[in-house]
Amino acid sequence: MAAVVVRSLSDETLRALKRRAARSGRSTEAEIREILKAAVHPQVGLGSALARIGQQIGGVDFEIGRKRSPIKPPRLS
After folding, report:
1. Is 77 inside any structural domain?
2. Which DSSP helix (H) or strand (E) runs through 27?
3. Whole domain around residue 40: which residue ranges?
4. Distance CA 36, CA 33 (A)
5. What is the pLDDT of residues 7-52, one digit of tens each?
6. CA atoms of 48 and 43, how far apart (whole Å)
7. 20 contacts 28 by C-beta, under 8 angstroms
């Protein structure tokens, strides 16, 4: 497994990393690994995943009609 050295990290940034690691219940090193992993492998949301699938199959057209009549406000009495 590779090792990386980060130089010139400010004391403020290191303190923030240590606080974040403590909140997550991880060591500072493990927290930094998680941050780097998330940065290079972001999670894809459901909408984005579905859009990607649609693009891969050439797109999908939906014929969804929309009501053009005005919406009646609710009666509160």
Report:
1. no
2. none
3. 11-56
4. 5
5. 999 999 999 999 999 999 999 999 999 999 999 988 888 988 888 8
6. 10
7. no
